[in-house]
């Protein structure tokens, strides 16, 4: 016999256990697209206490729709090592291009990240905490509060490192730039896949003490070209930022 109250108790007890174990973490990642999910998996596997916030119901960011809703995803050779590591299948299309299924790629990245990091969906990061010139954490609220424009105060979580993986918006860097006045965002440029792909990997970095940037947010911060529907750079940018955070936190 199913007791509805036991179901309620199980959900709330386990949810708040998860929430409380994440309010003082090593790494807080904002955005559950390809770059954020890769960074979360890698840092979690290395033993860091990682929390990822995603404002939408589902994670995966821009992966699901491939290019113009054709749900196939192209990556270049260098990124196939990440697909292998995450056990995601792909086909060789010749000339150095490889194609994964967008649904399998999204599912595989989400599965890996959820096994290694604590993930909260439907949670909007609306502000940052800064103390003594260093980012010390995030200000979070239900995404529904933002959508309904409700006047409800947020909660806070602290972390030793924050990663902005919010894609084209560079939402966290935008807030930090405006509120600290310590750096500016150059804004994303025209389409040039070669330069864009290389740039988002090479320039994944710490932009402000304690604040790191990965994925398309790198292009928005440093004024790099966009690259359209090729995703290897996003995966490798997530890996690169994880390496930098690991080195700095150790
Ligand atoms: O946009 P998104 O997939 O970022 P990414 O990892 O990858 C970019 C590619 O998908 C694609 C591309 C490839 O060539 O150009 O665009 O850089 O995922 C960003 C995620 O961040 C969430 C947003 O809902 C999305 O799922 N997000 C954005 N702002 C916030 C947020 C916020 N303030 N709080 C929580 N989540």
What's a quick, concise take on this entry?
By secondary structure, the protein is of the alpha/beta class.
Structure commentary:
This protein has 250 residues and is an alpha/beta fold. It is 40% helix and 26% strand. The chain is built from nine helices and 13 strands. It has helices at residues 4-21, 34-45, 80-85, 102-116, 143-147, 171-180, 193-202, 216-222, 232-249; strands at residues 24-30, 50-53, 72-76, 91-92, 97-101, 118-120, 123-131, 134-142, 155-164, 189-191, 205-208, 211-213, 225-226. The strands form three sheets. Strands 1, 2, 6, 7, 8, 9, 11 and 12 form an eight-stranded mixed β-sheet that branches. A three-stranded antiparallel β-sheet has the order 3-5-4. A two-stranded parallel ribbon has the order 10-13. It is globular. The model has no long low-confidence stretch (mean pLDDT 98). Ligand 48F binds at residues 30-36, 53-56, 61-63, 124-125, 165-167, 169, 171, 215-217, 227-231, 234.
């Amino acid at each position: 016999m199913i007791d509805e109250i036991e179901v309620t108790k199980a959900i709330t007890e386990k949810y708040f256990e998860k929430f409380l174990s994440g309010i003082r973490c090593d790494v807080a990642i904002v955005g559950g697209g390809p770059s954020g999910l890769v960074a979360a998996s890698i840092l979690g596997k290395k033993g860091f206490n990682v929390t990822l916030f995603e404002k939408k119901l589902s994670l995966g960011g821009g992966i699901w729709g491939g290019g113009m809703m054709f749900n196939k995803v192209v990556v270049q050779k260098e990124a196939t090592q990440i697909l292998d590591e995450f056990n995601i299948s792909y086909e060789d299309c010749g000339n150095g291009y490889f194609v994964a299924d967008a649904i399998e790629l999204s599912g595989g990245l989400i599965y890996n990240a959820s096994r290694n990091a604590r993930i909260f969906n439907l949670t909007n990061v609306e502000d940052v905490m800064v103390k003594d010139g260093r980012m010390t954490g995030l200000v979070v609220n239900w995404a529904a509060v933002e959508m309904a424009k409700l006047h409800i105060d947020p909660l806070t979580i602290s972390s030793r490192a924050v990663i902005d993986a919010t894609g084209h918006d560079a939402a966290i860097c935008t807030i930090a730039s405006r509120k600290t006045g310590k750096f500016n965002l150059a804004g994303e440029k025209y389409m040039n896949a070669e330069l864009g792909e290389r740039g988002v990997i090479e320039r994944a970095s710490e932009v402000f003490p304690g604040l790191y940037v990965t994925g398309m947010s790198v292009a928005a911060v440093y004024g790099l070209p966009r690259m359209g529907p090729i995703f290897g750079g996003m995966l490798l940018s997530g890996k690169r930022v994880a390496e930098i955070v690991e080195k700095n936190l150790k």
